[in-house]
Amino acid sequence: MDRTGIQPDSALAGAVTELAEVLGPKGIFTQAGDRARYASDQSGLVGDTPVAVLRPASTEEVSRVLAICSRHRIGVVPQGGRTGLSGGACSPQDAVVLSTERMSGVVEVDREAMTLTAWAGTPLEAVQEAARAADLDYPVDIGARGTATIGGTIATNAGGIRVLQHGMTRPNVLGLEAVLADGSVVSRLGKTVKDNSGFDLKQLFIGSEGTLGVVTKAVLQLRRHVPQSALALFALPDHASALVCLTAARQRFGSRIRAFEGMWPDYWNFVCHQTALATAPLAGQHGFYLLVEIEAASTQTEEELEAFFADLFERGVFEDGVLAKSLAEMRALWSVREAVGEVDDDFGHHINFDIGVSPSALGNFCDAADSVLAELPEAVGVLKVGHVGDGNVHLLVAHDGSAAAEERIEAAIYGLLRDWQGAVTAEHGVGRIKARWLGHCRTPEELALMRGLKTQMDPLGILNPSVLFRDTEI
Ligand SMILES: Cc1cc2nc3c(=O)[nH]c(=O)nc-3n(C[C@H](O)[C@H](O)[C@H](O)COP(=O)(O)OP(=O)(O)OC[C@H]3O[C@@H](n4cnc5c(N)ncnc54)[C@H](O)[C@@H]3O)c2cc1C
């Protein structure tokens, strides 16, 4: 027996032979060079090279390979595009990866029901494009849209920049097909909007990070496509003013607020001045920056946004602002916010916290985090950027790369978070990286119920061992 309790090499080799028989030559990678590419995701955590990479092309193949893995008690890591930021798709020792890359494609777009059915391995962007071709819209949108898959966004309940308007992934999934650890298929791919016939089982798989089943297909709820929008960037004295602005925007624009994104001065100065990652669209120093996108209801939307700006400027809520007048100007404004995806090289070793608190408490929480970090010599830099309307801040804390520094900083921030009754992850998921901190935002009773569900659905604990629960290594 090795560290994970998996059978010795010979038995593992026997299992791989069985898996190869089911999947055929295109469906399995066993060469070291091929396997190494599937070890890790984008979280920075370095995974082990998987024993084999399984590439099933159908639900039936997923079912057969999971039954084999169960029989041999082999850990299975479901993988989509490997863009995850919490180590959920990183391979532990002696596990196989189950990649959905060959289960890709849009199966159907139903314009009347406003639904799209897709295989789990379909890239998010391909789904968005297929919806647009039907003059509809799939509203879940994240920076990694070109590579992240539908299965991955479902497994992580991905959020992104349009949560305020259409919610996270959860409310945008109507039907789901998943395969349990023993190979049984749970399929409910209907387009029923209203369905109170018992438990809504699909919700168990959404956000479960591959620990309860492998998602193979989904029916997604599409929305009306509104191509036009107006975008403005505002400079404010502080986060409290951003909340005033949010309340005013909700009153004036209601559900037409497409994005309401915030940048603290540490982030703004880093991407616009310390590095050349973005060009500053506004001059001077301000206490907070807000990017507001409003869906167009008519050709008057720019004027509406201007009037909104003028009103709040007069009331002293805004200090400065700029309204995008063209698509190129819109891209330029968005590029400041999206530069967070490019800070890694310039910012050096850092922890990327993905914290959720009540939207009304976000500013004060960030002030408290700044104070806590100022006391820690290990924390050598802080950047804050996030989704103001959702109370979600991406708090990036630079350190010297040592495990001790990481430990001290995490303990300080997650300790603070516990006091504020927040979430250790608002959208990226718990994965392997945050599993040890889950108890900071979930009660013992909640954790026991989660473990009970895990045991019921995956009694041998083969699906994504040590993700979400630290004690689920098989
Ligand atoms: C530049 C960038 C920007 C990002 N922006 C956002 C953002 O705004 N909001 C946000 O929420 N996230 C964001 N992310 C994180 C990431 O893109 C999402 O978590 C995404 O949902 C992961 O999709 P994936 O296909 O790459 O999944 P992977 O990384 O392959 O896997 C993620 C998790 O899902 C599980 N999984 C994958 N496929 C399946 C399946 N078919 N069945 C069961 N489990 C499965 C894996 O085991 C793992 O636990 C960003 C990442 C990057 C690199």
Automatic annotation (TrEMBL):
<dbReference type="InterPro" id="IPR036318">
    <property type="entry name" value="FAD-bd_PCMH-like_sf"/>
</dbReference>
<dbReference type="InterPro" id="IPR051264">
    <property type="entry name" value="FAD-oxidored/transferase_4"/>
</dbReference>
<keyword id="KW-0274">FAD</keyword>
<dbReference type="InterPro" id="IPR006094">
    <property type="entry name" value="Oxid_FAD_bind_N"/>
</dbReference>
<dbReference type="Pfam" id="PF02913">
    <property type="entry name" value="FAD-oxidase_C"/>
</dbReference>
<dbReference type="Pfam" id="PF01565">
    <property type="entry name" value="FAD_binding_4"/>
</dbReference>
<dbReference type="InterPro" id="IPR016164">
    <property type="entry name" value="FAD-linked_Oxase-like_C"/>
</dbReference>
<dbReference type="GO" id="GO:0071949">
    <property type="term" value="F:FAD binding"/>
</dbReference>
<dbReference type="GO" id="GO:0022904">
    <property type="term" value="P:respiratory electron transport chain"/>
</dbReference>
<dbReference type="InterPro" id="IPR004113">
    <property type="entry name" value="FAD-bd_oxidored_4_C"/>
</dbReference>
<dbReference type="GO" id="GO:0016491">
    <property type="term" value="F:oxidoreductase activity"/>
</dbReference>
<dbReference type="InterPro" id="IPR016171">
    <property type="entry name" value="Vanillyl_alc_oxidase_C-sub2"/>
</dbReference>
<feature type="domain" description="FAD-binding PCMH-type">
    <location>
        <begin position="46"/>
        <end position="225"/>
    </location>
</feature>
<keyword id="KW-0560">Oxidoreductase</keyword>
<dbReference type="InterPro" id="IPR016166">
    <property type="entry name" value="FAD-bd_PCMH"/>
</dbReference>
<protein>
    <submittedName>
        <fullName>Oxidoreductase</fullName>
    </submittedName>
</protein>
<dbReference type="InterPro" id="IPR016169">
    <property type="entry name" value="FAD-bd_PCMH_sub2"/>
</dbReference>
<comment type="similarity">
    <text>Belongs to the FAD-binding oxidoreductase/transferase type 4 family.</text>
</comment>
<keyword id="KW-0285">Flavoprotein</keyword>
